Amino acid sequence: MASYLYVLSLALCVGAAAAGHDYGAALSKSIMFYEAQRSGKLPSNQRVTWRADSGLSDGSANGVNLVGGYYDAGDNVKFGLPMAFTVTMLSWSVVEYGKQLASSGELGHSMEAIRWGTDYLLKAHTEPDVLYGEVGDGNSDHYCWQRPEDMTTPRQAYRIDANNPGSDLAGETAAAMAAASIVFRQSDPAYSNELLNHAKQLFTFADKYRGKYDSSITVAQKYYASKSGYADELLWAAAWLHEATGDLSYMNYVIDNAASLGGTGWQMTEFSWDVKYAGVQVLASKFLMQGKGGQSNAVLQNYQENAEFFMCACLQKSNRVVQKTPGGLLFWQKWNNIQFVTSASFLLTVYSDYLTAARKNIQCSGGAVQPSELLSFAQSQIDYILGDNPRATSYMVGYGSNYPNQVHHRASSIVSFKVNPSFVTCRGGYATWFSSKGSDPNVLHGALVGGPDQNDNFADERDNYEQTEPATYNNGPFVGVLARLHAGGNLNQLLPVAVPSPASKPKPTPAPVQASPPLAPNYSPIAVSQSVTSSWSSRGRTYYRYSTLITNKSKKTVKNIKLSVQMLYGPIWGLSATGGSSYSLWQSLAPGQSFDLVYIHAAPQATITVQSYDMN
Predict the structure, then answer these.
(1) Edge-to-edge strands of the sheet including 558-566?
(2) DSSP-derived 3-state class of residue 175
(3) Residue 531 has what pLDDT?
(4) Is 322 helix (H, G, I), strand (E, B) or coil?
(5) Angle, to 10 degrees, between the axis of helix 338-358 and the axis of helix 472-487?
């Protein structure tokens, strides 16, 4: 057994190139899925081009602007609690694996996905003690099968306030904004501070006016009932506020309320949009391993014991374990089981890195567990989702050669509004599109569907919503795990202490610009180099994954880089299309800095040249 674990660990260190799956491609698709879920006015750089604007009057019936945000799954409702959890998990993915996302060329897209969510959450928080938590309702929405662009269902908005509290909803939204504030701290300090201020207000609101949100927004009960209550979200929000600010008052909240709010009492085997205890326990364990406990180490150690109970239960090394299918997938429930698999895999992955950095392991009742074993098990779950299962089915739409083609998703199952703008009626959509046995006219790239049952069985049928409906919160933690697996190796993170957001400062007067000496003809400060990183065969064609390194060779910062990409016959990641063969690079490059972009096609390398740039 010891030699087997060593070989497995060594294989992980080799990295994604030697693995059986293209984690980089899966990562890119997983993030792109969020663009298909967008509500509101779509941006010019929208990559999912079969979608169009929708929900442009959301909130108007209530006198507020609630345009934007995400549709949660295969319907057209904007549910606040799962949306906020999605933003929290996307943000946590970036907080932990931002460097890995940057090296894969997906950091920009990840931040765009987060910001699309936080922009909406900011709109929804209209007053310190008022938060809108839903637009539309599941009952009327599910009666119709329409594209978002054709919606005729009521778009009533529902809110919580001091008289109608919702500590779970407000707490999760506070956690989302606090986590996202870390993501934007360097690139947009003003936006980061705005998020942090809202997060603080929402936490105060959640703690002061306590109650379950679905007692106030009763239309959510049938779809996103808060079965775990709000205590976990209060701890979760406080933990993220401490992570974002370093403020000890939030740490003290987590410690002082550990017993009364269940943080050190509950031993969990589930982590989801509803139940956050395991996430709180992992964050508290991180604080402990960072040496933040001080005189309260004993309380944080209790949190850690419960975090490690979760790990042991997933690894089948505890007295109480998570069920597994015969094919090896963790199994909680028949309806959208994959949401629990991706969230558990994320906790296993980050905890593995925490333990590695602290040079520790876990003592389960079933034996000792090394950090590499946690990561290996998480990888086994991801590989199952991507196709290593008894059905040889990828449960990510658009990945691999055998994936779901009849997804329970209104927008993907109906012809694109841009292809045929003819109005799809409420019930007509069921008759024409829902009942169709054909493949979806729009491939919902990156969507993680609900997945197989406890016996690894799966029916690819549109009316099988328990197994074929995707959801935004399935992908949030998936992004982080894929970024980690794509990077490979032992990160050996040293867990730095969280740094507070910088205070707003007046902008300094810029120094006078010195004239640059004339450059030699045909000189370019930007070097472009390409290489093939992997290849595979599918349906008689050989596909190549190209890595293109854009490097600033000058001694000045280069920005607003425009590139020409010719002879490209597949998707490209890391650039924004500006029309024709022209693309823009979102990131400025400091002297000596490089940016890696990726494209895939069944042809020799594309021709990539620099069109223009600005230099500071």
Answers:
(1) 576-579, 582-585, 558-566, 607-615
(2) helix
(3) 78
(4) coil
(5) 40
Q: What's the full length of the chain, in residues?
A: 616
Amino acid at 201: Q
Which of 162-176, 353-367, 406-420, 498-512 comes out lowest in average pLDDT?
498-512
Structure tokens at 588: 């400025």
Cβ 281 vs Cβ 307: under 8 Å: yes
Token pair 């991706």 is found at: 342
What are 195-232's pLDDT values in tens digits? 999 999 999 999 999 999 999 999 999 999 999 999 99
Predicted TM-score of the model (pTM): 0.79
| Burial label, 548 (beta-carbon count in 10 A; 0-12, 13-18, 19+) | buried
Distance in angstroms (rounded) separating the CA atoms of residues 496 and 427: 55
Both tokens assigned to 507:
């902008």
What CA–CA distance (Å, rounded) separates 61 from 226?
26
User: Residue 552 pairs with which residues in a beta bridge?
Assistant: 526
Reduced to 3 states (helix: H, G, I; strand: E, B; else coil), residue 559 is strand
Instruction: Check: CB of residue 481 under 8 Å from CB of residue 92.
Output: no
Tens of pLDDT, residues 92-125: 999 999 999 999 999 999 999 999 999 999 999 9
What pLDDT score does 536 carry?
64
Task: Give the residue among 74, 28, 36, 76 at the shortest CA–CA distance from 55.
Answer: 76
* C-alpha dist (Å) from residue 27 to 60, 136, 282, 444: 36, 31, 24, 14
Question: Residue 145's closest CA among 520, 457, 491, 415?
Answer: 415
DSSP letter for each residue of 103-157: HTT-HHHHHHHHHHHHHHHHHH--BTTBEEEEES-HHHHHH----GGG--S---E
Query: CB neighbours of 470 closer than 8 A, spacing ≥ 6?
Result: 33, 73, 74, 397, 407, 408, 409, 444, 447, 448, 449, 450
Please compute Rg for the chain using Cα positions: 24
Q: Which tens digit of pLDDT belongs to each residue from 431-485?
A: 999 999 999 999 999 999 999 999 999 999 999 999 999 999 999 999 999 999 9
- Give dist(CA 535, CA 293) in Å, integer: 48
CB 572 within 8 A of CB 25: no
Active site (catalytic) residues: 75, 408, 460, 469
Residue among 146, 121, 149 nearest 135 (CA): 121
E-assigned strand segments in 219-270: none
Q: How far apart are CA 46 and CA 521, in angstroms?
A: 37
Q: What CA–CA distance (Å, rounded) separates 89 from 400?
A: 25
Separation of alpha carbons 103 and 23, rounded Å: 13
CB atoms within 10 A of CB 172: 36
